[in-house]
Amino acid sequence: MTGMTAGSGGGAKPVVVITFAEQLRPTYLAGADLERLSAFAEPVWVPGQDRQQASRQPGQRGQQTRQAPRGPSVLPATQELLDALPRAEALVICTGAPMVDGALLERAPRLRLVGELEGDRFANRLDVEACQARGVMVVDTTNGSSYPVAEWALAMTLNALRNAGHHFRRMIAGEVGQQDREQPGYFFGELTGKRVGLIGCGHIGRRFLEYLRPFRCQVRVYDPYLAPEVADIYDFIHTSLENVFRQSDVVVCLAPLTPRTKGMIGAQELDWLQPNAAFVNVSRGPVVDSAALIARLKRGDGVRAALDVFDPEPVPAEGPLSEIRQLPNVFLTPHIAGSNAESRPRFFSLMVDEMERFFHGHEPRYVLNDRTLANRRGT
User: Fold this and answer.
1) CB atoms within 10 A of CB 39
2) Which of 73, 210, 221, 300 has the most CB atoms at less than 10 Å from its CB?
3) End-to-end alpha-carbon separation of the chain, Å?
4) Which residue among 313, 362, 365, 371 is the active-site one?
5) For this structure, is 325 an active site residue?
6) Which stretches within 56-202 are classed as H helix?
């Protein structure tokens, strides 16, 4: 691959070893980003485990709530990777890479930076503490998918306020006519000036706040891990979960799934929603009690929802929870908020930005530290 060579250890440029499943390389590694990296570093490509094999291992997507494992690597390091590590000053990993633990770090005495591209929101491939003990910085550009998710959060907010699910069902049923003036989307459908409540204010939440600016909304945020100065920077009220529900016209769930957030939104929290309020979830389905959500939406007081995620997924075609498909006050999409072709190369593009900052003596932006780990592990 152009710009990715075995190199020579005596050059001035730092060696950056990149390893993950070979099948991911065409969609993750854009030529322009490799050229940018090659301008200040020597990239070395080492194929990892194939994607299918890696997906069968623990510690991948779908098991994001557990803490980083200890002991042997989840996936074994290949001999090619072990041969490349002694020269590496940075290591970039993704699906198909081995666990970066103390044993692997021993093989990389020059290592200064480890970067996870995507899929490691909860450090399942990284023993961050082991890296910290050796003075190795850890960064994570999983937030590359936050861009489309924040856009979809805005779209779903507009859909929920207008009760788009209701209108779509009327049209496909063959009904004619324009606006249904008897439903809440007619009376409470505009976003401008509304009170918007956010549950979680990480990368997605902060980008979503930028999109809300033209609508001049009054924003309330619940996020127990948020640094106090963020509320001042973005000009919102940092408050309790109860206040977010009780004092908002639309509540948008952006919380990650952790042991602490699983089932966090249940019957009591949903009961706090005011009549004619809207509820949006583009985070993870298990954050919300599905049965309680269905019950709340069936109450008939104007509450409506727009959901990109549900528990379980895919949304059941049969059984009690399948009722979410038929409710007239629900707009559904099949967990597509973060999935598009543009987001895939962004993970590596952001990582090159981080490498450029680090190797030019600046501070990276997406460091995994004790505070971010506490959030992701729900501790």
Assistant:
1) 11
2) 221
3) 42
4) 313
5) no
6) 79-84, 102-106, 128-133, 146-162, 164-172, 184-187
- State the catalytic residue, choosing from 284, 304, 346, 376: 284
What is the domain extent for residue 99? 15-140+340-369
pLDDT tens figures, 299-355: 999 999 999 999 999 999 999 999 999 999 999 999 999 988 888 899 999 999 999
Which residues fall within 8 angstroms of residue 81, CB to CB, at 6 or more apart? 17, 19, 46, 48, 98
Q: Is residue 5 part of a domain?
A: no
Select, from the ranges 45-54, 108-117, 336-345, the one with the highest average predicted confidence (pLDDT).
108-117
Is the pTM above the cut of 0.85? yes
**Peptide bond connecting 314 to the previous residue in cis, omega within 30 degrees of 0:** yes
State the pLDDT confidence band at 60, using cuts at 50, 70 and 90.
Answer: very low
Are 276 and 344 contained in the same domain? no
- Whether residues 20 and 86 share a domain: the answer is yes
- 23 burial (CB, 10 Å; 0-12 / 13-18 / 19+) is middle
**Percentage of the chain modeled with pLDDT above 90:** 76
Q: What is the CATH number of the domain that holds 196?
A: 3.40.50.720
Short-list 97, 92, 102, CA closest to 74? 97
Nearest residue to 144 (alpha-carbon basis) of 345, 281, 357, 335: 345
Residues 335, 356, 357, 377: which is the catalytic one? 335
**Together in a domain, 41 and 79:** yes
Instruction: Record the tokens describing residue 44, joined without a space.
Output: 């070395």
pLDDT at position 65 is 31
Using an 8 Å Cβ cutoff, are 368 and 128 in contact? yes
Tens-place pLDDT, residues 2-14? 445 544 444 589 9
313 as an active site residue: the answer is yes
- Give the per-residue pLDDT at 183: 86
Say if strands 278-281 and 304-307 run parallel, antiparallel, or are unpaired: parallel
Residue 309: name the closest of 231, 237, 204 by CA. Answer: 204
Look up 181 and say whether it is catalytic. no
pLDDT averaged over the chain?
A: 89
**Cα 65 to Cα 62: distance, rounded to the nearest angstrom:** 8
**Which own/partner pairs from 176-184 qualify as long-range (CB within 8 Å, at least 24 positions apart)?**
184/276, 184/302, 184/304, 184/329
